[in-house]
Amino acid sequence: MIKYKIHPLADVQTNKIGEGTTIWQFSVVLKQAQIGANCNINALTLIENDVIIGDNVTVKSGVQIWDGLRIENNVFIGPNVTFTNDFTPRSKQRPAEFLKTIIKHQASIGASATIIGGLTIGAYAMIGAGSVVTKDVPNYALVYGNPAKQHGWVCECGTKLNKLTCLSCNKVYTMINNALTEQNRTEQNSRK
Ligand SMILES: [Zn+2]
């Protein structure tokens, strides 16, 4: 029994799709793509072959997910976000291998941002609308602009942190070896 939903106007060639996922009108998904459970793939998206998408991922309309992309659980990809996978594109000239881009879990990418190929976008990172991201983005970083620069940190709930504390949900963060960590998570780790 098929437990995912493909709109009759979509062209979906893979059957590696998790339970509860929906793929909407005029989307094209190639044969080897893997899509996890409970994803929402909005209308007018294109997903190529060498693509792995985790669970609970939202892909808004107008997004092309090219070969080489790895998208972890709970990622949000806004409308018309653009990915690239080749630094020196020429017509009819394919590189030996496409660049690998990793979007870590719970990261969010704002509308119409461009993510250059080969980068890693950190967990819980927030990319502002219209940004052009040319460098790796750390976990929890808030970046925007062209080229995108860091303008602080964001909480797991999405609010910009005030001195490493979230004024919306009261989570507190600490900086360990130049990496931001949520304090409860640190305590859990040290108890192991
Ligand atoms: Zn918060």
UniProtKB/TrEMBL annotation:
It holds the Pfam family Hexapep. The keyword Repeat applies. InterPro entries: Hexapep, Hexapep_transf_CS, Trans_hexapeptide_repeat, Trimer_LpxA-like_sf. Keywords: Acyltransferase, Repeat, Transferase. One of its GO terms (molecular function) is acyltransferase activity. Belongs to the transferase hexapeptide repeat family. This is N-acetyltransferase.
